[in-house]
Design goal:
With about 300 residues, the chain is of the alpha+beta class. The protein is built from ten helices and six strands. The chain has a domain of about 130 residues. The protein has a four-stranded mixed beta sheet with strand order 2-4-5-6. The termini are far apart.
Length: about 300
């Protein structure tokens, strides 16, 4: 019996070492502009957010340690109640995806959630329960955790992220009575509500098709077939054009552009003249404020 228990314990130990939580999330809290608040509050805040993101199991998916999703969350604190526990901040989120057989990470998301307000008390447990709104900070973190897992899954499987976007939408629904901004449809078209609505809306699915084909069929094959991969990536740019023609100001469309603009330019800097022209024609049409950047591929 003792031998059997030792074997079971060893199996459990090995299993825990093989499978891991979803995230390897770097967290930074910048508070240089804030006076009158003990700086240890922000140290504790960073630690609490780091542990909340990295130690929680967010899905039923099994991740090896080497497969953990890499992201960065930078909170820039811009205001604080004097002696209080309520803070105002901007949150910069960067999500990256490793590219097969390379040491290169591709940026999938690079965005700023502006003017978020939340309460934080040092040494108080951060708790989140699905389908329940406890506080703004944990709801924001949960929303982006689910969204980032969904985006990562979309780059490996066509529309694979849908279950996670549905979880993110459930966070939005639970926060509808929140006194803080970012959750309601009527506030504007560039907030958390509209982000996940765009992801779940079938009218904008070409952008999710792009996430899959651009990364899995394009970038992941670059190391073995650079010309064929570039042709695949050029095809995916037409998916952005489809969505742009429907709704040029779409929030998710703008986020994809922001994440991929520089990478697209780098990919086509060594392309054939015909491919460079095709890329320029599409990208200057859908991203006119940055048109001059795309023409620079002709200088390389």
């Amino acid at each position: 019996m003792i031998k059997r228990l030792l074997i079971i314990s060893l199996i459990l130990l090995i299993t825990n070492n093989i499978w891991s939580q979803e995230f390897f999330c770097q967290v930074n809290v910048q508070s240089k502009e804030i006076a009158g608040v003990d700086k240890t509050v922000f140290t504790e805040m960073r630690k609490a957010i780091y542990e909340f993101m990295n130690n929680r199991k967010w899905s039923n998916n099994n991740y090896q340690i080497s497969e953990r999703i890499e992201c960065t969350m930078i909170f820039t604190i811009s205001g604080a109640q004097q002696g209080g526990d309520e803070f105002k901040a901007n949150l910069n989120i960067v999500l990256q995806r490793p590219i097969y057989s390379t040491d290169y990470n591709s940026v999938v998301l690079n965005m700023i959630d502006k003017d978020i307000v939340f309460k934080y008390i040092p040494n108080q447990n951060m708790e989140f329960i699905d389908n329940s709104y406890t506080d703004n900070l944990t709801s924001i973190l949960a929303f982006y955790a689910y969204t980032m897992i969904g985006l990562d899954m979309d780059t490996y499987s066509l529309y694979g992220g849908t279950p996670m976007y549905e979880k993110a939408m459930a966070v939005v629904s639970s926060a509808q009575n929140s006194p803080f901004k970012g959750w309601q449809a009527f506030e504007g078209d560039k907030n958390r509500y509209h982000f996940v609505e765009n992801l779940l809306n079938s009218a904008y699915r070409p952008l999710r098709t792009l996430l899959y084909e651009y990364h899995l069929k394009g970038l992941d094959n670059m190391s073995t077939n650079i010309d064929g991969s570039r042709t695949t990536i050029l095809k995916t740019l037409s998916y952005m054009k489809q969505v742009y023609d429907k709704r040029p100001g779409l929030y998710f469309f703008q986020l994809v552009l922001e994440a991929k603009r520089d990478e697209i330019i780098n990919i086509f800097s060594e392309a054939s003249p015909q491919e460079k022209t095709a890329m320029i024609n599409i990208m200057t049409d859908i991203d006119p404020p940055n048109g001059s950047k795309y023409y620079k591929v002709n200088e390389r």
